[in-house]
Amino acid sequence: MQMMIPAGVNVLEYLRDRGVFIPAACSGSGVCGKCVVKLLAGSLDITENDKLHLSESALDEGCRLACCACTKGVVRIGVGEYGEQVSADISRPADTSHTFGLALDIGTTTLALSLVDIDEKRPIRSLSALNRQAVFGADVITRVKSSLSGRREALRKLVRESVAALIKSIDCSHLDVRKMTVSANTAMYHMLLGLDCSGISKAPFEPATLGGECLPLKDLLGESFPECGAADIPVNLVKGISAFVGGDIVSGLVSAYDRFFDANTLFADLGTNGESALVSSGRIICTSAAAGPALEGGELSCGMGGVKGAVSRVYRNGGGFGYDVIGGGEAKGICGAAAIDLISLMLEDSLIDKTGKLADVYFENGFALAPQVCLTQGDIHAVLLAKSAIRSSLETLLHLFNVTPDSLLISGGLGSYIDVKNAAACGLIPRVRNTKVLGNTSLKGAELSLYDTSFASRAEGIRNKAEIIDLTENEYFKQKFIEYMSF
Ligand code: FES
Questions:
Q1: Which backbone phi and psi does 32 adopt, to 5 degrees?
Q2: In the chain, which stretches have pLDDT less than 50?
Q3: Which of 203, 248, 303, 357 is most buried, by CB atoms within 10 Å?
């Protein structure tokens, strides 16, 4: 997409104000190097941050960081079409004599929407797209800060637009849609409802909501409401447990509980918030560790969510590495699961050492997997931090309750594509014989709630039982965190 930008503006601010999606993981601090635009006409100074993040040839081609670019005259720029990527995950024909519901998972990086046939008790269409709020940062903490610095309405508008675009794309206007369930973390609920985030920004972490609201779809989406013939359907927000253990985890636990839980089961959501639960002797112990967005692709130099164009898997191919791209075609970036694959294979080949250092030949410029996909030293460090946060939190739960897990259940956006062997080789997860990858359990729980009348009482049972462990002052966690900062 090309755009004319007037004189005297900051390019990122200008694009945000017009609803143009551009990844901005650091929310405009000049640190992440993600917000690249291309100068097509006019001039933009080259800043120190441009020099830091962009190669000489990229600068010569006109690439600039939008957050550091302030226009002196009118310029024309090119922006990637990131926001329009919608991936179809399931697609079956709809029986128009049936009744339907919508299930939505609002993840920090990706949103997923299912159209559920209530009579058949199964999803018939499922779509995912990037969360447009990424223009205000890749992780929850950066977005909460943006919300508190006057961007509350802008963030609400962006998530409403993301939801509306998905509902429009799923094409249900000719169907009898009766209800909708939303499942998300506590911060996303605040942003969706336009609530003050100050309570979740600092101790004692008192959220303005944990979810649990029920309101008509048109009220939830406001002016973004799409013409889908479902204006008055009730939308239920699955209630969470605390500021950091949200409705998405409750949904996930309900969806997995009956089928997958053994005597001692670890449930790990491999996302930005790193939520996990240990279910043992009738207790449910939950915690979360700020893993950052690296495992969802958010913090990596070529990272992206698990949507169309992302490398989703890396494997050995002859003497080198092969890869799969979601939706086929040219690789535009890499999602977290594939980054784990790549790191694991490079560890095996000693292209990365135990401390996470890239071999000398790749140290400066990174390892190029594809023309637009490179793994840099900074990326490996970001993965190490996320890996250590998650693994240490799992080990702390097991240590506190002196338990050896019988099974390990993996959920989250990353969980859909993760290779268990590679994840264990990197140290992200412990080696547990009965390990199952469940995919997006938050979405699965939301789907279940549409046709299973026991969902609400089971969710309530989990909330009542759940005990929350705070890791911030836990000495064992701190010790393990240092230990796991290597491979
Ligand atoms: S460098 Fe511009 S948003 Fe991060």
A1: -85, -25
A2: 83-84
A3: 248
DSSP run (H or E) holding 393? helix 377-400
Distance 138 CA to ligand 1 centre (A): 10
> 26 CB under 6 A from ligand 1?
yes
Q: What angle do CA 233, 238, 242 make, to 5 degrees?
A: 150
Q: What's at 9, amino acid-wise?
A: V
pTM: 0.85
Under DSSP, the state recorded for 339 is H
Q: What integer pLDDT is reported at residue 83 of this predicted model?
A: 47
d(CA 138, CA 304) in angstroms, rounded, equals 10
In order of 55, 158, 312, 436, 467, the CA distances from 296 in angstroms are 25, 19, 11, 19, 27
Mention every residue, 6+ apart, whose C-beta is less than 8 A from residue 169. 86, 127, 129
Q: Where are the alpha helices (DSSP H) in 116-265?
A: 140-146, 152-170, 186-193, 217-221, 247-260
33 pocket-lining for ligand 1 (C-beta < 6 Å): yes
Q: How far apart are CA 437 and CA 411, in angstroms?
A: 6
Q: How far apart are CA 390 and CA 128, in angstroms?
A: 25
Q: Are the C-beta atoms of 72 and 93 separated by less than 8 Å?
A: no
Cβ atoms < 10 Å from Cβ of 179: 20
Pairing state of beta strands 434-439 and 86-91?
unpaired
From 21, 22, 26, 50, mutation site for ligand 1 pocket: most ligand atoms within 8 A of C-beta: 26
CA distance 175 to 96: 6
Tell me, what's the pLDDT at 85? 53
Sheet holding 2-5, edge to edge: 2-5, 75-78, 36-41, 63-65
* pLDDT for the residue numbered 86: 62
Q: Domains, the chain, ranges and CATH?
A: 2-80 (3.10.20.30), 84-237 (3.30.420.480)
